[in-house]
């Protein structure tokens, strides 16, 4: 349809008015019939959240997305814009996006009465039909609904009893748009009350005015369950007026979590070209998030955002890039040792319970990495302490090498050549990594994983250095301590 410039041209074009909920519904049906992906970039919700949201749209419902931090609630809401028509006609100059065939404001009603079919028409792109407001305790009814504007009254020389002196808030200005309120429980109860009639009856009150304005809005709300007990709550009558409440969730598999992290991480072209993140490191990073969500040291009610993995991925690549630059190398791969550069991405994104506070954020992060290393280790190798009596110890040669008094220094900034040579000197380590399925660039990462895994299972001991780690036999530390105690006596 060509873009009409006047009301008369719009009528001749065959344009028919429809509500935004009908618009969303019809466009969703068209996409579903064509087997098109409706919410592009949303991963892990194909069988859970997205079908629920599609059913809500087909039912023409207002929606509450309920879930912990970092579960793509706001992104889902923003993607609803793709279900709108590309352009929407409005009465030119209308502050309420008035439908030319169904004007709402006094301005548009009077303009059409004066100019008839010559009334000028403007077209609004769908991207401009999305309005978002973060609920904070200082949000007022004037912000959302509106207030009397004394400056407008003085400029137009109108009394306060005239409707034209009203300055409309965000909700009326979102007529024929998608209006999103994020973190709804943070909105004061008395402000939530002001939404009752807008949602149900379509009227509102501004100061002394009671306006019957059948606003046409698709409401979307987001909330975190934590807010119900910590900061505020959604009052029951308001929840009753929101027809569909949809629960979101974190990725349920490593594979989905990896895809989300890879999609969302922001890397430079140099980082993408020069630093390779192999499968083992990618899995290990996601294991940290999964371990955090199961940790007794972290408040499960707060959740662990997907942003932890995303920021961690960026830090991991940057740790490898820094090492590459220091050693004047052209390309490198991430190592297990690079994960200690991920600690700053962990400490700021987890809410600790009392026991976690006692441990401290840094030690909690280190413990999470230790748990992740154990989980990844056990995916390819048996538990060192649960070998059967008649089973050959796959770690025997490595144990013997360290028991002979040898040590392994893994330095954070060592060149790739020195890093590989250091791991190669450990007897039996390379063969064990190869029999575990490691090959190519992953071989040395697997070798390092085995070393760190044996440390986590107390087969070896690890001493933290300023520039890395020193690995040695766990009994050697005990003998050294005994000898020192004997000398001191």
Mean pLDDT: 89
Return the CATH architecture of the largest domain.
3-Layer(aba) Sandwich
Radius of gyration: 31 Å
General form: elongated
Q: Span between N and C termini? A: 96 Å
What's the CATH H-level homologous superfamily of the largest domain? P-loop containing nucleotide triphosphate hydrolases
Strand order of the largest sheet: 4-7-10-1-11
- Count the helices. How many? 24
Question: What structural class results from the helix and strand content?
Answer: alpha/beta
Strand content: 5-15%
Tell how many strands the DSSP assignment holds.
16
Low-confidence residue ranges: none
The CATH topology of the largest domain: Rossmann fold
CATH class designation of the largest domain: Alpha Beta
Question: Could you estimate the helical fraction of the residues in percent?
Answer: 40-55%
The multimeric state of the shown protein is: single chain
- Whole-number tally of structural domains: 3
Largest sheet: 5 strands, parallel
Summary of the model, kept short:
Helices cover 45% and strands 14% of the residues. The chain is an alpha/beta fold and 489 residues long.
Structural summary, described in words:
The chain is of the alpha/beta class. The chain has three domains: 7-247, P-loop containing nucleotide triphosphate hydrolases (Rossmann fold, 3-Layer(aba) Sandwich), CATH 3.40.50.300; 251-380, Helicase, Ruva Protein, domain 3 (Orthogonal Bundle), CATH 1.10.8; 388-489, Arc Repressor Mutant, subunit A (Orthogonal Bundle), CATH 1.10.10. It contains 24 helices and 16 strands. It has helices spanning 7-12, 20-33, 49-58, 73-79, 106-115, 141-144, 150-156, 170-173, 189-193, 196-200, 227-230, 236-241, 254-264, 269-274, 279-294, 307-326, 343-347, 354-359, 361-380, 396-403, 416-424, 429-435, 442-456, 474-488, and strands at residues 63-66, 87-91, 121-125, 130-134, 146-148, 166-168, 177-182, 203-206, 209-212, 217-223, 244-247, 275-276, 332-333, 408-411, 460-465, 468-473. Strands 4-7-10-1-11 form a five-stranded parallel β-sheet, covered by helices on one side. The longest helix has 20 residues, at 307-326. It starts with 6 loop residues before the first helix and ends with a helix. The mean pLDDT is 89.
